[in-house]
Amino acid sequence: MNSTSTSFMDKLQLFMEEKILPAATKFSDQRHMASIRDGMTLLIPLTIIGGIAIVLAIPPVPATLEGTNFFFQFLLNWKAVATANITTLLIPYNLTIGIISIYVVAGISYRLAKSYNLDAINNMVSALFVFLAVAAYPANDGVFSTSQLGATSMFTAMIIALVVVEINRFFIEKKISIKMPDSVPPNVSAPFNVLIPVIFNIVFFIVLNTICFNVVGGGLPTLVYKVFQPFISVAGSLPSILVINFLMTTFWFFGIHGANMVSVVTSPITTAALALNADAYARGVQLPAIYAGAVNSVFGNWITYTAMLIVMLMFAKSAQMKSVAKVATAPTMFNINEPMIFGIPTVLNVFTYIPLIICSILNFSITYFLMQANIIGRFFVTLPFTVPDPLQAFLATMDWKTIPLWFALLVMDCFIVFPFLQTYDKQLLKNERKD
Question: Which residues contact 87 (CB under 8 A, 6 or more apart)?
Fold first, then answer.
């Protein structure tokens, strides 16, 4: 690069470090945002278990399929066994994704209480109690309803988790609590510290829930879902997703973990969308959300890093690129891209930044339009992030067409990144020969 472009990059880096990074870090580390982010991570194993359970219970076997070969006969046998045992097989799904909001309120309230050095367990139980009083109140027959414990109540769960802990903290700081004698062990006295604020919380939220019923014809979860639904729709639109991808790639360009920076906003949306899709799959109706689960990673720059690796393995001549490619081969196959990011490096490297931006736009735009047209399936299963991309695309959607799509995008990305990496490789080779 010439001195003009170098000067521009230096100025841009300085601007990012002085203006953008502090603001982004402050937002990401803000106590309540961090509690939501960290609390939502507790859902990952539960959504994996629930997703696997629903696939086992409701296999994607067409009604018209005939057992004309061994594989088709296997699918028909699988469907027969699943149909006969569907109630049992769906137990993990019903107790994970089916009531996901319970885990949301528990995780977030626990994390927020810990950040204040409050008794996390008692605050979590308090928030869970209040949420159940609002979302799972018993009907006239005394049976508790679980219809509002799923994905549609996730945002209500977040609000209640944050508000209950803040009210508890206010009462405790103002010493509006039952003070036990010093001789009483802390594990015994701790529940009494939150007794008065819990009474306030339960009365406050039950009254608020009753007002919502009288005014809008539905409880607090219904009102909150209606308020947040337009936001979810906008956040899941293609322009919004492309902006998110641009920000993530740009953060990585400056050596900042892009996914962590935006996950405060994206995780609640993609998790709620995944749960809604799983519920739709269980009911046999059209999956509503495109921006769900790990779709943005599987059909985003994970493909591009694999394309970079292939180009480097096939065409790189510089010692640096060759050595990085060898070291990064195994990790990249399992979506661990740090060896590429810090080995090439992609940090402050316009030769990788530009193709990453181009590929992220094309990869996800193509995927988005194909999903919107119902040509390929949508994500309704969460898998460990280390599951190889093509396999993850198939298992998350149970649609075999996602596999050829993934490989087609990989080929396209190889052609896009090739001229950029070739130019960079020549620059590295020239510098190595000078040395």
Answer: none
As to burial, measured by CB atoms within 10 angstroms (0-12 exposed, 13-18 middle, 19+ buried), residue 215 is exposed
CA angle, 119 as apex, 115 and 124 as ends, to 5°? 85
Q: How far apart are CA 131 and CA 157, in angstroms?
A: 7
CA–CA dist 120, 169 (Å, integer): 11
The one-letter amino acid code at 87 reads T
Q: Which residues pair with 144 in a beta bridge?
A: 138
Q: In this structure, is the dihedral angle defined by the CA atoms of residues 311, 371, 259 and 9, taken in order, positive or negative?
A: positive
CA 282/CA 276 separation, integer angstroms:
10
Of residues 167, 169, 176, the one with CA closest to residue 208: 167
Residues in a beta bridge with 138: 144
User: Tokens in use for 358?
Assistant: 């181009």
Digit-coded pLDDT (tens) for 272-317: 889 889 989 888 889 999 999 889 989 988 999 999 999 999 998 9
What is the spatial distance between Cα 289 and Cα 270, in angstroms, rounded to a whole number? Answer: 9
Euclidean distance between CA atoms 373 and 362, whole angstroms: 17
DSSP state of 119: -
- Rounded CA-CA distance 328/309 in Å is 8
Say if residues 303 and 409 touch (Cβ distance below 8 Å).
yes
Both tokens of residue 243? 């902006």
What b-and-e string marks burial along 284-294, b requiring 16 or more CB atoms within 10 Å of the CB? Answer: eeebebbbbbb
Taking only the tens place, the pLDDT of each residue in 86-115 is 889 889 999 998 888 999 999 999 999 999
What are the contacts of 87-94 at 24+ separation with CB within 8 A? 89/53, 89/56, 89/57, 90/53, 90/54, 90/57, 90/282, 91/53, 92/49, 92/50, 92/52, 92/53, 93/50, 93/51, 93/53, 93/54, 93/57, 93/278, 93/282, 94/146
- Reduce the DSSP state of residue 72 to 3 states and report it: helix
Predicted model pTM: 0.80
Provide the H-helix boundaries in 95-194.
100-115, 120-135, 154-173, 186-193
Phi then psi for residue 106, to 5 deg, are -70, -45
- pLDDT-derived band at 43 (thresholds 50, 70, 90) equals confident
Task: Quote the longest CA-to-CA distance of the chain.
Answer: 84
